[in-house]
Automatic annotation (TrEMBL):
Keywords: Disulfide bond, Electron transport, Redox-active center, Transport. Residues 1-106 form the Thioredoxin domain. The record marks P31, P32 as: Contributes to redox potential value. PANTHER family: GEO12009P1. The keyword Disulfide bond applies. It comes from candidate division WOR-3 bacterium. Belongs to the thioredoxin family. The lineage of its organism: Bacteria, Bacteria division WOR-3. The record marks D24 as: Deprotonates C-terminal active site Cys. The active site is at C30 (nucleophile), C33 (nucleophile). This is Thioredoxin. GO terms for molecular function: protein-disulfide reductase activity.
Length: 107
């Protein structure tokens, strides 16, 4: 799993990615984000090579949170070919996120 620290890194790892990218907007002071963290790690392992999972700390890279209108965290954005295809707000079961990744891969 990749930790994005700059907008330039985001552009390279997410917007220019050849495969779908799942972006977890989070903060370390957020309890639901901490609940979602192991799920994101599992998804990164499960989809290794097929989809990429990255994390963006909203306190470190505020401009990205603003650009994508992240109002609550955790917010998970699903990118394909540099565009947001789906969004999920709040901590949800792994199956919900996996289903969205699967639809990106099949679509």
């Amino acid at each position: 799993m990749i930790q994005i620290k700059t907008a330039e890194e985001f552009k390279k790892e997410v917007l220019q990615a050849e495969i779908p990218v799942v972006v977890d907007f989070w903060a370390d002071w957020c309890p639901p984000c901490k609940m979602l963290a192991p799920v994101m790690e599992e998804l990164a392992r499960d989809y290794d090579g097929k989809a990429k999972v990255v994390k963006v700390d909203v306190d470190q890279v505020r401009e990205l949170a603003g650009k994508y209108e992240v109002m609550s965290i955790p917010t998970v954005l699903f990118f394909k070919q540099g565009k947001v295809c789906d969004i999920n707000v709040g901590a949800v079961p792994k199956a919900v996120l996996a289903e969205k990744i699967d639809s990106l891969l099949s679509g």
